[in-house]
Design brief:
- The complex is a heterodimer of chains A (277) and B (294).
- By secondary structure, chain A is of the alpha/beta class.
- Chain A has a domain of 171 residues: P-loop containing nucleotide triphosphate hydrolases (Rossmann fold, 3-Layer(aba) Sandwich).
- Chain A is built from 10 helices and 10 strands.
- In chain A, strands 6-7-8-3-9-10 form a 6-stranded mixed sheet, sandwiched between helices. Chain A has a 4-stranded antiparallel sheet with strand order 2-1-4-5, with helices on one face.
- The model of chain A has no long low-confidence stretch (mean pLDDT 91).
- In chain B, strands 6-7-8-3-9-10 form a 6-stranded mixed sheet, sandwiched between helices. In chain B, strands 2-1-4-5 form a 4-stranded antiparallel sheet, with helices on one face.
- Classes of the chains: A alpha/beta (277), B alpha/beta (294).
- The interface between A and B is large, with 43 and 43 residues.
């Protein structure tokens, strides 16, 4: 058994590079320039950065959804870069994804029952629908949804409930690794806290490894053990949340942290004159 | 006492065919000249409804059933559409949430900035051009002359939001409504935009209604704030009191639910169900009392 569940070394991903419309060669545009990242068993790692920093691409590479141009990615000791789809399939169950927008990642024409039961049958984790549904009910209870939700369609649920369905779909397969890409950015503060609390509990109970992609450093602090700061496709800083947030070493990390408004009045934050008493 | 810049008093609004679902419940708030007032709440709290009511752009289906919205003492709700436009046009402007959709994709920035100047200030094309360029400089746009000739798709989200801020302040309005102006932006861009709104507002002495769900943003940019839940004011006052000495259990719980990068483990405590239940009971009691009067 490998020490780390995920071990990525020197990952380079470039988009494009095929022949253009008139046979002109289009240069591939690199979005990740040699990223090293490890995720231990039961560890939650935050990946932060602004739009265009490559954090979503990195997440997709970890799941084997985009092929790196160079570098290697090991999942539980097994090299997954360049793996054939058939060889990849048994691993797919063990790595799941929770998406940013549950409205566009849940099939609007399928009841929640189908959305949750089918993956179990597809991966052969349940012998029949009955058995699958029993497991689905247990997971629904765990994520705080009523059984009545099974007969609902995605549009009949609130944003927070839909995100719980997204989480249930990922964890019902009992994965080792879950990628959560900006999963709370569209939610209200109180709903966000519910989802984060749920995620923290699941990770503890199931000893999940998790990659938590977010632009919000406060949210990352709430759930992650370690954090990687990405800028322009490179890791500019990484380390335990404790040290990165209290003593950032990189100038970009500091800029990113300083840009988060805390619910504490700080006239200097906007460069305002101190309030007259 | 002088008349406040904006006084919303006992504003009630309903939605639905039957018109029996309240969306605003007796909302009152005042905004002084030069004040940034936060309208804070979660989705469905009615913060955008208040902003739209002030601008007279409530969607069909939402009906105001009582109260007044007074701009410098004049009740906007008593005006017909034409008069309202005359009153609001030069005096109140909007910084919208989504800079991608708020600009006309088929017109150059110059045209979109000079429209208001020519219509409301009666400027010549030449003067309006000069003023628009000056405005872009004021919002610290790089290469303003090039931006003037650009179409919206040629600009980044942050640049588009700067254009919209320039447009909002172009007519020297008395009141600017900022409807979640930074939710679509990256955090470092958000900070620049917040700083810009605050400095424009201070320089021009403009009152600002700042709609947001982010208590962190409220702490940094607002002087006073109104916290809403289901269309009812839960707490109102100076931001320092609201954040440091919250009186309502809902305010306290929301503060607890906010994750903070400087404090591990924060943001994992959802608003307790009892607090929501208490808020709902407060609202039910209010609706009951209202029904008794009617």
């Amino acid at each position: 058994m490998a020490d780390n569940l995920i071990d990525a070394r020197g990952v380079v991903v470039a988009y494009g590079g095929q022949r253009g419309a008139f046979g002109k060669r289009v240069e591939p545009k690199p979005v990740l320039h040699g990223v090293d990242l490890v995720i231990g068993r039961g560890e939650t790692v935050g990946i932060v950065g602004e739009s265009g920093s490559g954090k979503t691409t990195l997440g997709r590479a970890l799941l084997g959804l985009v092929q790196p141009a160079s570098g290697s990615i090991h999942f539980d000791g097994k090299e997954i870069t360049g793996l054939q789809e058939a060889a990849m399939r048994p691993l797919r169950r063990r790595m799941q994804m929770i998406f940013q927008d549950p409205m566009s990642s849940l099939n609007p024409r399928r009841a929640i029952r189908h959305i949750l039961v089918d993956p179990l049958l597809l991966h052969g984790l349940a012998k029949n629908r009955r058995e699958a549904e029993t497991r689905v009910r247990a997971v629904l209870d765990r994520v705080g949804l009523a059984v009545a939700a099974l007969d609902r369609y995605p549009h009949e649920l609130s944003g927070g409930q839909r995100q719980r369905v997204g989480i249930a779909r990922a964890v019902v397969l009992e994965p080792d690794f879950v990628l959560a890409d900006e999963i709370v950015s569209g939610l209200d503060v109180s709903t966000q806290a519910q989802v984060l609390q749920l995620l923290a509990g699941l990770k503890r109970d199931m000893n999940l490894s998790m990659a938590f992609i977010s632009h919000d450093l406060s949210v990352v602090r709430a759930v992650c053990d370690r954090v990687y700061v990405l800028s322009g496709g490179r890791v500019v800083e990484q380390g335990a949340c404790e040290s990165v947030f209290s003593a950032p070493q990189d100038a970009y990390t500091r800029t990113l942290i300083d840009a988060i408004p805390l619910p504490v009045i700080d006239p200097a934050w906007l460069g305002r004159r101190p309030a007259q008493a | 006492m002088t008349v406040p810049l904006l006084a919303v008093s006992h504003l009630n609004a309903v939605v639905g065919r039957a018109g029996n679902a309240p969306v605003l419940r007796d909302v009152s708030l005042t905004i002084a000249r030069g004040e940034v007032h936060g309208l804070v709440g979660e989705s469905g709290a009615g913060k955008s409804t208040i902003a739209k009511a002030i601008l007279g752009i409530l969607p069909h289906g939402i009906r105001i059933t009582g109260g007044s919205i007074a701009l410098e003492g004049e009740d906007l709700l008593t005006f017909d559409a034409v008069t309202l436009r005359q009153k609001l046009g030069p005096a109140v402007s909007l910084i919208p949430q989504d800079p991608q959709t708020a600009l006309n994709p088929g017109r150059r920035i110059e045209a979109q900035l000079t429209d208001g100047l020519r219509l409301w200030k009666g400027m010549s094309a030449k003067d309006a051009h000069a003023r628009a360029l000056q405005l872009l400089e004021e919002v610290q746009m790089r290469e303003p002359a090039r931006v003037m000739r650009s179409f919206p798709h040629e600009l980044s989200g942050g640049m588009r939001q700067r254009v919209l801020i320039a447009a909002a302040f172009a007519l020297e309005p008395k009141l600017v409504i900022a409807d979640e102006p930074t939710t679509a932006l990256d955090v470092t861009v958000q900070k620049q935009i917040l700083r810009l709104i605050r400095s424009m507002q201070e320089r021009h002495g403009t009152g600002v209604v700042f709609v947001t769900h982010d208590l962190g943003v409220v702490a940094q940019i607002c002087d006073r704030a109104t916290l809403l839940y289901m269309g009812k004011v839960m707490e109102q006052g100076n931001v320092s009191d609201l954040l440091n000495k919250p009186r309502h259990a809902y305010t306290k719980a929301l503060m607890e639910a906010c994750p903070r990068y400087d404090q591990p483990g924060r943001g994992l405590a959802p608003v307790p169900e009892e607090v929501f239940a208490a808020c709902r009971a407060e609202i039910a009691a209010f609706d009951q009392a209202g029904a008794g009067h009617g």
